[in-house]
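Researcher: Batch entry, complex prediction.
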Amino acid sequence: MADLSDFRAEARAWLEANFPASLRAQSEAVAELIPGGEKPTGDALLWKQRMAAKGWGTPTWPKAYGGGGLSAAEARVLAEEMAAIGAGNPVQGMGTSMFGPTLLEYGTEAQKQRHIPPIVRGEVRWCQGYSEPGAGSDLASLTTRCEDAGDHWKINGQKIWTSGAQYADWCFCLVRTDTSRKHEGISFVLIDMHQAGVETRPIRLIAGSSPFCETFFTDARVEKDDMVGPLNGGWAIGKRLLQHERSGQGGARLMGAGKPLPEIAASYVEEDELGAEDVRGRIIAQAVDARAHTLTMARAAVESRGNLNPSAATSVMKNSGAKLGQDKAELTLEVMGARGLGWAGEAFTDEERTAVRVWLSGKATTIFGGSSEIQNNIIAKRILGLPDPLGSN
Amino acid sequence: MAVLTEEQSLLRDAARTWTQEKSPVSAFRKVRDAAAPLAYDPAAFAEMAQMGWTGVIIPEEYGGSDFGWLSLGLILEETGRTLTASPILASAAASGAILLGGTATQKEAWLPKIASGEVVGALAVDEGPHHAPAKVATTAKKTGAGWTLDGAKTFVLEGMAAGLLVVSARTSGNAGDEDGISLFLVPAEARGVTRQALKLADSRGAANVTFAGVELGAEALLGEAGKGHALLEKTLDRARAALAAEMLGSAVQAFETTLDYLKTRVQFGQVIGSFQALQHRAAKMFTDLELSRSCVEAALTAIDNDAADVSELVSLAKAKMGDTLHLVSNEMVQMHGGIGMTDEHDAGLYLKRARAQETAFGGQAWHRDRYARLQGF
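Model: Structure tokens for the complex:
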């Protein structure tokens, strides 16, 4: 492991020299589940440029496309060193966590050359065109049409829950190229969002924000060489991408950031009040589950022995992480009492107004990226080998 | 469902018809979106008062119908179904205090006005983020023939709408002591009373209220000085049971809306309600709702009968109903999937209301603990 300690020293030195001190103060901030629309400025922009140039925003991607070229073990060390100083990944997004890894696996050399370097540099934002109003859990029933228009593909239809579509430059999208077959009639295309045939409409959610959109395609144009994989061969690629999405979600992000529950409880609950023991018991149970989750993540990392590819086991981590985050949010609210329901105004602290929104927006974590029910189906079918009452999927 | 008298059946049917026609969820949404100053529609409340809903627990001699708490529960179950915002519950709780502890003069002074809907009453009890009726630091000092009130109350339900505040204050002892608490009838417009409207997630009316040297006459004291804790708990038990009835309505409607969705949403070529995993979760919710209804009705009936075990049954009802509502409100969002996360759908309104109802007058943990203590565990 001498190499790793060398690398750790190298990473630490580089971060020390390049991570702007002014960003450290923000490390406590609650990470947004869905990135917003603001482009970084000042030190945040500087940090992004430095990380992009180093390729460490996409640490395991090949150097040929500008990536960091690190091993999985080195990438873990880098993540630990970054966490230790409160440094976030400034180029992180759907391009780095979902689309990039999928394109590296399935794309042509020309497609990789065209689309990967701008992701590495954090220059383009990608969004995901998967769900439709009639195709949620049953994603393969999607109906957005893609037709051959001679020198290009023509797209017509509607997507929903397109995260960040209003800010996105590109959309990776599942479309129907054959109406006579279900799974075998789907293709995977890349749509330039900056064209007349694309319209996005933000959807207001229960927490008050609008991180998702409805996205409408009307004769939208896709270049011929922006179809990934073969015609009618998009389903396998689309599913692979979902595994990358889930593995990104299984991490600490879904478990809920911010102060530990016992610390919050200490400032809101008096030990002698009715129900305090009851709440304490549930806080302990949540802490035990959270630790078990963290240990399982670590075990999975060790057992994968550097294999970065996600597996069906990511469904386990996604469900576990999402539940932990929701439990934490519910307990935070309960601990804060009526103050935890504060929505607006000076009567409440920032922490309280945030808690109620984290609680509400967190309800999406068991719905998006494949609902808990769908993850459980995957676990039952692919890991446990139980029969699928729906037939093949 | 409890066996109802003919009067109660008529009352429930009238409440159901009125709420469904005049006060569907869209009416509450309108109030929310307009950020109505009292967080309810005064015209709708006037209609409710016209129908006698503000006087259900008030004796006929004071302008009410004296139908009792179970009857009030029937109305609140219906308003809870459609998330109707109104001060019916808060006013009933305040009038309950006067009925239980008031002199004939106090009853004469306030009950007819509450029964007619002219005055809204509210309980100003808690001083922190958690329900804690004995933790009273607000003081009332004897000054001449009357009292001077100093302190602050938090999360007063319908505190902005209230014309009358029933305030717990300490006339002796320290915060946490049950002895030394007294209740006072405080007109909201009295000098020294200031109110701050609170914007909560559920968009209902609530306020923080401060009392700075508020001068009260001798007639403001409700019940015996220093012995108010028992009266306060009795009053709160009525408010908790009434709230549990409202929660039952919210939970039943949240469940029924979800059940409809299970029967109509098609994925994988079939309605999602055909999946056994979802069927079992629906069956569990139905079971919990049946159990909860028994507890809520038992608590309200015990109050009407002035039974010895009111407190136990009320804590049982608030704890069990709270757990069921918690589950159903979460499942409403989850089973609707993405559409349940949108502000346009009703699921979020039920979810937000649910947590506010759970929290008010003691949450599940609080009532489980109280139930255990009353049972001698």
